[in-house]
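Why do we bother with a discrete structure alphabet at all? Because it lets us treat a fold like text: something you can write down, compare, and reason about line by line. To make this less abstract, here is a complete entry for Drug/metabolite transporter (DMT)-like permease. Read it the way you would read a sentence in a foreign language you are learning: slowly, and without expecting to understand everything at once.
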Amino acid sequence: MTAFFALTTSLLWGLADFGGGLLTRRTPALTVVVASQAIAAVVLGVIVMATGGWGEAGPRLWFAVGAGVAGPVAVFSFYKALALGPMGVVSPLATLSVAVPVGVGLVLGERPGALQLAGIAVAVTGVVLAGGPQLRGAPVQRQTILLTLVAALGFGTVFALITEASTNVTGLFLSLFAQRLTSVAVGGAALYASVRRGAPALPEDGLPRAALPALGFVGLADVAANGTYALAAQHGPITVAAVLASLYPVVTALAARGFLSERLRAIQAAGAGLALVGTLLLATG
């Protein structure tokens, strides 16, 4: 079940990143993040009320609050790094986020077998290559590297915290709701500060109605991915769940190929193949 939930996480995160990337071409990234998370928070609030999730409130919710703070910081840093570029450096470097939950798993006493260790190495290499790393060109700004590392640390922190936020499905709904409320609050404050500095909150021609379903999809896919990752980590080794869940850049690249007819570079195709091999090794190990 760990492999199934973790791979589902990769699929959902990859599609959410693809949708978010399309939206940010016309709408400010902060607006996309806040609006999509707000929609997800409303849906989760309804689910929590329907399932009686309020009864699961307890100290563990602080882990969800922490994840809610780390998430927007990671996303904002990631988008800023992408804006500074080059994407061929930022995207692969951001996959270092997997080091945080894997490190937590090792500290907690998990010891992957030889086959799983090989799978981790192959899968991570595949993910980095699938991002299309820039192997030559102009030097990368130090600020870009720093922002990317902050994003990776933030994403990895969300990975680690969300697994500790609940012990059952009902509590998971509540923890995801608390995480989203915190994300909206943090993101909303950042958006307000940005607007005060003169940055636009919406495109010049306004937000088209067609963007609302897309925002809803991005927000709900992201929250569902957090949920499936928590289930993956609860059903098996965190080291395996984290690596399999980190395959989402491959999904994003394939979605761009399928929907936008973007051609994969040879190094990206090779990376996708290695990621698949690593997945098989982890699943069978």
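What the structure line is telling us, in plain words: Residues 2-284 form one domain. The chain has one domain: 2-284.
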